[in-house]
Amino acid sequence: MAFVEEEFFIDDDLDILDIVEFGFPRKIYNRTNHFEDLDNLTFFKRFRLTKNTVLHLLELIEVDFEYDNNLNNSVTPIDQLLAVLRFYASAGHLSTVSDFIGMDVSTASRIVAKVTRAIARLYPQFVKMLGPNDLIQAQTDFYRVVSFPRVIGCVDGTHIRIQSPGGEDPEVFRNRKGYFSINVQGICDANLTLLDVVARWPGSTNDSTIFNNSRIRRRFENNEFPNCLLLGDSGYIVRNYFLTPLLNPLLRNERLYNEAHIRSRNVIERCFGVWKRRFPVLAYGMRLKLNTVLQVIIATAVLHNLAKRMNEEEPPLPDDVNQEEVNYLIAIADIGDVPNINQNVHVNHFRDHLIRDYFSRL
């Protein structure tokens, strides 16, 4: 099962096999109070959110995983949440999380799956397309970038590394750069807020196919966003609401159109970069069950928008994460599609009309 935009399928299976210990005494862990003991900057670096935001998040989800008592040295809700945030801030090793928080690896596995599901359930509240009253402001925000009219969002795909999922046809998850991945479609506004995330397609799927089968395409074609545009790269098909750059601009107005398009579309690339640097596990990839990987993608999208809503700055990378390595992994996750040679003359006329009547006057 996988996330299908705004629909969620929850799997209660664990990410690794339970560790069953026969004949060994039970190990009791002494846990550090990281929330109280760490200063604000260190906490921000290690958990990627400020203490105020973590407390706000805990209020929203703790009912899903709090215990009725503290028998058997149970892990408190705050420690469960910090364990998961620490996992998102790491290179994807559960052993690192278990050592840091003070718990067994099998316990860390169960907590990552459980708390991730709780955060992902907040998706409809934090990741949503613009309402009718927000469209003009969104267009104004994009217009301020480089004077491109009517744009409310930019679309692109980014690849999240996974281990081979096994099964009957694992090769469908191998992308054109040779590694296994999920191709995640994201749409963001000019302020780098995610408006829509589709996390269910294997790495061999091209970006255009994902958009063609997405709910957001149907919503645009049902005229839910009148007089509004999306921008995407040349791997997509041109539509009367979706514009791509010209492949061979010759005239001045064509070059101006392409320049404005590229500079406006840069926001989605920046959004992916901010998202993955805040949660480096997205750059490194995950050695978890496929369903849990999809849930982590959705959960971190929720947290990215929560951080934007709380006006948080981008945190510095943790000390155990290499900046150059993360930037390199982010860069190679941008697997551009082969340009789509669109034969829809009528739709191309729409783009040509915009270039002729608007960009010729700039």
TrEMBL record:
One GO location term (cellular component): nucleus
Keyword Glycoprotein: no
Keyword Nucleus set for record: yes
GO molecular function: hydrolase activity; metal ion binding; nuclease activity
Broad class of where this protein is predominantly found: nucleus
Keywords recorded for this protein, A-Z: Hydrolase, Metal-binding, Nuclease, Nucleus
Domain DDE Tnp4: 155-305
Compartmental location: Nucleus
Matching InterPro entries: HARBI1-like (IPR045249), HARBI1_dom (IPR027806)
Required co-factors: a divalent metal cation
Similarity comment: family membership: Belongs to the HARBI1 family.
Protein known as: DDE Tnp4 domain-containing protein
Organism: Pyrocoelia pectoralis
